[in-house]
Amino acid sequence: MTQTKHGICGLCFHSPGCGVIVHFDDEGKIDHLEPDPDAPMGEVLCPISKSARDIVYSDKRLSTPLRRTGPKGTYEFEPVTWDEAYDEIAAKLNELKEKYGPESVGFYAGTGTYERSFKDAYQLKGSEIYLASSVLFPFGSPNTFGVGAPCYTSLGVLAPKVTMGCLHIDMYSDLDNADLILVWGTDPSTSTPPAAFSKLERAAEEGAEIIVIDPRRTKSADLPGAEWLPIRPGTDGALALALAHVIIRDDLHDKDFTENWCQGFEEFAEYVEDFTPEYVSELTGIDADRIEELAESIAEADGATYVMYTGLEYTKSGVQNIRAVMALWAVAGQLDVEGGRNFLHHDAFIPLNKSILKETPGFGKSIGADKFPVYAEYCGGEPHAILLPKAIIDGDPYKIRGLFIQGASILTAWPDPKVWQKAMEELDFLVCIDLQMTRDAAFADIVLPASTAFEQESYCYYGNAIRYREKMIEPVGEAKPNHQILAELAERLGYGSLYAKDPKTLLGSVLEGSGYSLDDLLSAEKFVIKKPGKPMEYKKWEKGLLRKDGKPGFETPSGKFEIKSTVLEKHGYDGLPKYEESFETPVSDPDRFKKFPLILGTGPFKPDMKSCFRAIPRFMKKFPSPAIQISPADAAERRLETGDLATLKTARGSVVMRVFVTDKIMEGFVYAPVGGGGPLGTEEWQAANVNMLTDLEQFDPISGFPVYKTLLCQIKRKRDKRHKIEVPDPTLGCVG
């Protein structure tokens, strides 16, 4: 008889933790998952959940610590014990510290470390959210880095903090009550948590108007009554400014808010005068009349909100593009109203104890001193990871000689993998910690096996609720939880007392001052404690509900909604959400556009976990090749058909992928998947690292985020086979 257990999904750490019912086979192994509607976030599961068994028991899982035996660039390792691995790591780190100083060692944390207990143990003190690990701070190194440097932080932290004084997660979109919903630069049908798309579906069925602004026609645009507005990638900020232009021009703006609660409205109104619908239509490709109509709809809707994720980040003015949308919503009077883009009650959250967090030993001593100051200010003094290659290769400002990479695959995630590979070859010592081999591990000296969240005790935090994570199965082989690995490493380095190894001890300390105890949690039904909710209140800035001091206004330096940001101006940036063409577009670089007449966007191939799924045979059988999505018109012009092998090229390099012709992508734009270039998957996936087409020189000067969405490219058909020339054919004569 199949056994079941109620728990929390342990596959991805992008969501707070979806409630699941775990089904086990006769051997006690995970067989499959089903939703647990009575648990937090258990209403619906994402498609990735169907691969739980494949991921946990993959024959590509790392099951023991490994030490290099062959040259760098190979996967020649021998098994060692945990003690041997720790001893070697500690000895090498102490050697580097003695010779070159503790700052010569760095740490890079990826999304594989986003499990909640890890985040609460290793978040940097002063950082608004978990982005990187503090484990080397007591060692003396300020050089910790994280995946927040190329992802989410622009939307999640920087743009909302400098504008409204809050985080993206301190707000929500009232999809249940909105008459108008803009799905802007994201695909909720493939995102986590998956419940958001269910709400969108219900809203569509109940008559809400849904507008999808995206170069791709996502599933949201197929909902009843939905409309797809294709937009030239990177011009979203211009569209937001044009919409604000119409609302202000036609006197549709919220005058009380703009007069009493805004900083910089007059300058903003003057700036957007130039962003007429006609001008922005030329930039975006959206009809001028449609821009007029949409602006009026936003201002006059009985509740308008948006669903947005990271699609706007990856261009030269990514932070400002996002801020332009936020300013638009405030000016339109759709901020913190029924059906709008709303703030959560601060006192509805269960407070977590942050006193255990470790402070940087000195941002001024890091390789990021004086660079990306806004990022550093909100990220606890974390130096930006885009600076790592120059530090390792050129010693700018000094050499990083040792590096940890945990839960990440830098060589398949960051632009210009050739430069990153050269950097890894230069390192004196590299440690990789992951579920499976990565491309980075080919250059590692030690590789350590991490467990999935199914294989560990922990907890998940939902803002107004917290749930204990019960271990579902024992770890595969000798794998260990990420937080335990670092706690044991800290012990070898002489400061183990600073990091709790036992998850219950950690949880007890995190709950201090919350009003709840560990016993409360462990005795609760399904191990869930939830803070009672409060009646909804709107326009919270009027009631002192957004500031820690209880005064009316916003948690910003001026106490107002800062369309003109004090923080940005303090650090030398423009305070207004100004639009800039990206570095390499049909407008900014018309000469290059003649040679590369298509716009390239890159990103995950959903449902996917980037390079992780390349180890899953069932997934590879279904998707054996990376596929370039291209419109029928662009394909016909190049004599391309679905399944053709093609070369995708930019000014920086080329990759070979298959073609997928679809009418769900706008003409002039192609989309190519990330996740190739690692040691797993088919030969075609292993050979296709799309980041060969990108570079480290194009980035948003505020966030440091690389440009992934607006590069110029060309695609040409490639022969599937090349035949060996055994004897030249003389009959061809001069024709040959």
UniProtKB/TrEMBL annotation:
The keyword Transcription regulation does not apply. Residues 2-60 form the 4Fe-4S Mo/W bis-MGD-type domain. GO terms for molecular function: iron-sulfur cluster binding; metal ion binding; molybdopterin cofactor binding; oxidoreductase activity. Keywords: Iron, Iron-sulfur, Metal-binding. It holds the Pfam family Molybdopterin. PROSITE patterns: 4FE4S_MOW_BIS_MGD. Transmembrane segments: none annotated. InterPro entries: Asp_de-COase-like_dom_sf, MoPterin_dinucl-bd_dom, Mopterin_OxRdtase, Mopterin_OxRdtase_4Fe-4S_dom, Prok_Mopterin_Oxidored. PANTHER family: OXIDOREDUCTASE YYAE-RELATED, TRIMETHYLAMINE-N-OXIDE REDUCTASE. Belongs to the prokaryotic molybdopterin-containing oxidoreductase family. This is Anaerobic selenocysteine-containing dehydrogenase. It comes from Desulfatibacillum alkenivorans DSM 16219.
